[in-house]
Amino acid sequence: MTSRTASGAGMAGRAFLVGAGPGDPDLLTLKAARLIGEADVLLFDSLVGREILALAKPGARLVDVGKRCGRPSAQQAAINRLIATHARAGRMVVRLKGGDPFVFGRGGEELASLRAAGVAVEVVPGITTALAVGAALQVPLTHRGMARGLHLLTAHTREGELPAHDWTALARGGTLAIYMGVRTLPLLAARLLTAGMAPETPAIAVQSVTLPEERRIPGTLADIADRVAAAGGEGPTLVLIGEIAAMALPAAGTSWVAAA
To answer: Is residue 45 annotated as a catalytic residue, yes or no?
Structure first.
């Protein structure tokens, strides 16, 4: 049975792990938009905006299971149980996740839990934040002669600490895309500097990419943490570090937080 015939009525339920992309509803895949409109139950992250949720059909059950660092949030085990419970009740369940389910989205944990529960599941990819940032800045994340590699990194562990990455390898070059790094950015920059990355290496942080409140904070490896802290803001932030960051230019209608 394909997803096109999936329904919550008169048949076993089914779960979909769906990437909602960076926030702009125009960047949803066609399949993601269709499934959102067909779902009986939508379990959504806090980063999924109202315009995307508005695609749900009348009568659909919308459940906020968002997790934000430092704030009260749903536990992953409880989310896993909710998905399975609704699917076993014969409902079509869409677990809607910001970005892509398999890029720092805990999609692997949910997939394993649903398989163990015997629930049919399908994964629908979304545009991850690093790709959205590159497109918004019109900056290629890889570029011949400048950046031959791309590293997608999380900047905090489950305990909120900086992970033990191979800093020496990361300092050798390529583009670093840092997810969830606002709190640990000073320590991350220090680790890269100690490992030999040049202090003048270009860097840029982008908050709430693709949304009307998007902001861009340029700097260098040596000062990007201070600039991000001074800029403040509540939106999700991704930091690019590498030579390609110097190619970023202000865009019309976008807030550009100038260097201090």
So the answer is: yes
